[in-house]
Amino acid sequence: xxxxxxxxxxxxxxxxxxxxxxxxxxxxxxxxxxxxxxxxxxxxxxxxxxxxxxxxxxxxxxxxxxxxxxxxxxxxxxxxxxxxxxxxxxxxxxxxxxxxxxxxxxxxxxx
Length: 111
Description:
The chain has one helix and eight strands, in the order ββββββαββ. The strands form two sheets. The protein has a four-stranded mixed β-sheet with strand order 1-4-7-8, with no helix packed on it. The chain has a four-stranded mixed β-sheet with strand order 2-3-5-6, with no helix packed on it. The N and C termini lie far apart (about 30 Å). The chain has one domain (about 15-105). By secondary structure, it is mostly beta strands.
């Protein structure tokens, strides 16, 4: 996936996005990724700059905000990812398909 030259990519060319903000609300935990020139389809890696606050309810769904748009993060079977799935995780892989509305957690996050 080609991207803006100011985005770090790994050896395989996958963008690595550092979180800019993690906020806990009453309905979700949002991981802000800032404004990036990410192509509308493909995978990227999220590297959390902070941990999800311990006070966050583990049953809250997780959302990602990228380029000013907030969308729910789901597993490949469309089940929402909750805080419990990301507890203790600081790096994970996501598949994005803006055309079909997919924002899927692709990496295994539990032992």
